[in-house]
């Protein structure tokens, strides 16, 4: 069995590298068990060349891109990444292939499946109280998590209308769709299972001018992130790896 694949769309090298660090730490994977593909650096190419027959699962990281942005405001890189991901999801959904998308994954998978993605349920950078649904409590990817837990969030867009094919697994008071499943093996979370306090603090400083908060608030928010105690979301990634990566 080959490595898991992490798709990244982060143009900032520091953010991309820390995302890899976070995924490895949260999942328990060793470096040789994770192949990283930075879509923003070049076209995906033929999907048959990915070697899906040897890949136990695909992870899509977060992104500064917003799926719901008007096409006229999207860069050529964003449009290419979105086209590549849409074509990839055509294949993955048809195969019911193991997939876990974090934050950007909600918009990408949700839009692909016919949901509505807009800015109605955006959340400020920080922690959010997540609550599992009955279906979430029974889902193997959420095994071992409490019914309620804190997770790191920070997003301008979210799912406002869930796709008809989706099973809602988790929500929160400010954002009703925090996690959903398509078929049996495709998942998306609005919260970040890969983030720890150090990772969030770094991203706050990196994206201080990206419109998530007033730039003057960056240092205060970074300090607050470092003081946060968030432990449960990482178990989602660990469960994903343990469920699909036999022998990992």
Describe what is shown at a glance:
32% of the residues lie in helices and 23% in strands. It has 248 residues and is α/β, with parallel strands linked by helices.
Structural summary, described in words:
There is one protein chain. Helix 1 runs antiparallel to helix 5 (197-206). This protein has 7 helices and 11 strands. The protein has one domain: Rossmann fold (3-Layer(aba) Sandwich). 46% of the residues are buried. Strand 3 (58-60), helix 2 (76-95) and strand 4 (99-102) form a beta-alpha-beta unit. It is globular, with a radius of gyration of 17 Å. It is α/β, with parallel strands linked by helices and 248 residues long. The protein has helices at residues 13-27, 76-95, 104-112, 134-138, 197-206, 218-226, 234-244, and strands at residues 4-8, 34-38, 58-60, 99-102, 116-118, 123-132, 148-155, 158-161, 166-171, 179-182, 186-189. The chain has a 9-stranded mixed β-sheet with strand order 2-1-3-4-11-10-9-6-7, with helices on both faces. Keywords: Ligase. Its EC number is 6.3.5.2. Residues 52-200 form the Glutamine amidotransferase domain. One of its GO terms (molecular function) is GMP synthase (glutamine-hydrolyzing) activity. It comes from Paeniglutamicibacter gangotriensis Lz1y.
Q: Unreliable runs, pLDDT <50, ≥5 residues?
A: none
Cross-sheet strand order for the largest sheet: 2-1-3-4-11-10-9-6-7
CATH 2nd-level architecture: 3-Layer(aba) Sandwich
Order of helix and strand elements from N to C terminus: EHEEHEHEEHEEEEEHHH
Q: Give the averaged pLDDT, no decimals.
A: 95
Count all strands and give the number: 11
Described by strand count, sense and barrel closure, the largest sheet is: 9 strands, mixed
CATH class: Alpha Beta
Structural class label? alpha/beta
Name of the CATH homologous superfamily: Class I glutamine amidotransferase (GATase) domain
Number of domains: 1
Shape type: globular
What share of the residues does DSSP label as strand, in percent? Answer: 15-25%
